[in-house]
């Protein structure tokens, strides 16, 4: 029978004692898990000094025990993850399986039995952070997930600790390397989306099924985590407005470049001031026009970058390799050191704090500028009709650019700030005009 919660908390807060060994269960042995195992073994002495005692992997949960894994003692391998998590000699569980349902079951079992957890699982954290945090609090143990957002870039620690004394106003960033590689390739080579995706797949940047990346789901999970931490408010995956890059064309990239912008898939989390003076939170993922002079515009290939704006600290940017076995393992091991130190010496790391409990703003409340690309009839009066459609919705035009064709013209307009709900109405009105043959794309402008 498990010890009562009060007993578990007392045990964890007092620590095992200097020099005691921390027993680790490693759940998953893919690219990240294998790197965690290798680095922890090769640098065992250094980790023991950082932790205050040895850290020993005492079991590795895998699917196929018969698969050859050179350098891994066979006795460490098990296909019974539940039994491994339940063992008395396990103090810390490291979850690098991926997915949601089965990892959730394992992580909850670990936390409920008084074991701290390190996970790299963004989908799990985005979907169930509240449940996991409550379980960790009840047992008085740690839940670490630095690797869930942008791998080795220290975003989670920055929001949890470094900016804990500040008020975060906005977080925006490139948090998916696959989509950034594709958009960067389209801009630098003139390739189509399909051509750039094929190259990303050939080089290993894109999965065989790239849906989670190119449709923005991966970035949306990370946006939910960043918004929850930054605004002390529970934001879940389903609260994040999500659009991917599959509709971005080479023509869109060229038009953006001509206007002095790069197109990036951004995760944007911001604190909104409503008309009544109250605050709300919005998180969204969509292709965004970023001015060439902005630091995010220069982020190339598969790199990630997060731009944070805080009341006292001002503007901060974090940049690096946001995916891959080594960077992700680095973040996991940083968490292992933190959790293991607490197991040895006692105490807990800062946990989830959703005291602000701000309402989640509907996407229609978000205000931004828009770049709208249309095919229109090439005749007198077209611009007046289009301007009227914008004016009737209370939106003014900042710039208008026309490119003449044979029978039609291409019209690109950039608006002043307007709300998303208004934009939907404008696009519907434009589509009904005889003068407009097609609205090819609507892309939002970043700051």
Automatic annotation (TrEMBL):
Q: One short Pfam family name for this protein? A: Homoserine_dh
**Which InterPro entries does the entry link to?**
ACT-like_dom_sf (IPR045865), ACT_dom (IPR002912), Asp/hSer_DH_NAD-bd (IPR005106), HDH (IPR016204), HDH_cat (IPR001342), HDH_CS (IPR019811), NAD(P)-bd_dom_sf (IPR036291)
Part of which pathway?
A: Amino-acid biosynthesis; L-threonine biosynthesis; L-threonine from L-aspartate: step 3/5; Amino-acid biosynthesis; L-methionine biosynthesis via de novo pathway; L-homoserine from L-aspartate: step 3/3
* Active site residues of this protein: 222
One GO term under biological process is:
methionine biosynthetic process
Q: Which domain of life is it from?
A: Bacteria
- Give residues annotated as binding NADPH: 122
Enumerate the PANTHER family for this protein.
HOMOSERINE DEHYDROGENASE
Protein name as annotated: Homoserine dehydrogenase
Q: Which organism is it from?
A: Corynebacterium curieae
Traced from the root, the source organism's taxonomic lineage reads: Bacteria, Bacillati, Actinomycetota, Actinomycetes, Mycobacteriales
């Amino acid at each position: 029978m498990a010890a009562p919660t009060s007993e578990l908390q007392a045990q964890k807060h007092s620590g095992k004692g200097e020099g005691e060994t921390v027993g680790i269960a490693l759940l998953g042995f893919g690219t990240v898990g294998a790197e965690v195992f290798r680095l922890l073994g090769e640098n065992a002495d250094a980790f023991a000094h950082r932790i205050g005692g040895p850290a020993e992997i005492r079991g590795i949960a895998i699917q196929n025990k018969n698969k050859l894994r050179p350098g891994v003692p066979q006795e460490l391998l098990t296909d019974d993850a539940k039994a491994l998590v339940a063992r008395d000699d396990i103090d810390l569980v490291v979850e690098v399986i991926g997915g949601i349902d089965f990892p959730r079951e394992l992580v909850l079992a670990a936390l409920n039995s008084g074991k701290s957890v390190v996970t790299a699982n963004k989908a799990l954290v985005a979907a169930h952070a509240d449940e996991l945090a409550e379980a960790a609090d009840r047992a008085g143990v740690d839940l670490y997930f630095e690797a869930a957002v942008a791998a080795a870039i220290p975003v989670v620690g920055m929001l949890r600790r470094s900016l804990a004394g500040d008020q975060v106003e906005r977080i925006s960033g490139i948090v998916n390397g696959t989509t950034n590689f594709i958009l960067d390739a389209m801009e630098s080579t003139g390739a189509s989306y399909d051509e750039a995706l094929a190259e990303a797949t050939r080089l290993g940047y894109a999965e065989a099924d790239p849906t989670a990346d190119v449709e923005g789901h991966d970035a949306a999970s990370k946006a939910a985590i960043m918004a929850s931490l930054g605004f002390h408010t529970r934001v879940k995956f389903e609260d994040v407005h999500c659009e991917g890059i599959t509709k971005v064309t080479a023509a869109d990239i060229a038009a953006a470049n001509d206007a002095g912008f790069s197109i990036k898939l951004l995760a944007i989390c911001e604190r909104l001031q409503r008309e009544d003076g109250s605050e709300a939170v919005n998180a969204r993922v969509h292709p965004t026009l970023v001015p060439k002079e902005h630091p995010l515009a220069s982020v190339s290939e598969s790199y990630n970058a997060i731009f944070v704006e805080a009341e006292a600290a001002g503007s901060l940017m974090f940049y690096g390799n946001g995916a891959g076995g080594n960077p992700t393992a680095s973040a996991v091991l940083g968490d292992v050191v933190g959790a293991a130190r607490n197991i040895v010496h006692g105490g807990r790391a800062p946990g989830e704090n959703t005291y602000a409990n701000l309402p989640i703003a509907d996407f229609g409340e978000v205000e931004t500028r828009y770049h709208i690309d249309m095919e229109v009839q090439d005749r007198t009066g077209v611009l007046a009709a289009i301007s009227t459609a914008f004016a009737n919705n209370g939106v003014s035009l900042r710039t208008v650019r026309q490119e003449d064709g044979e029978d039609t013209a291409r019209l690109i307009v950039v608006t002043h700030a307007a709300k998303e709900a208004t934009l939907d109405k404008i696009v519907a009105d434009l589509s009904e005009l005889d003068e407009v043959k097609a609205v090819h794309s609507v892309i939002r402008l970043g700051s």
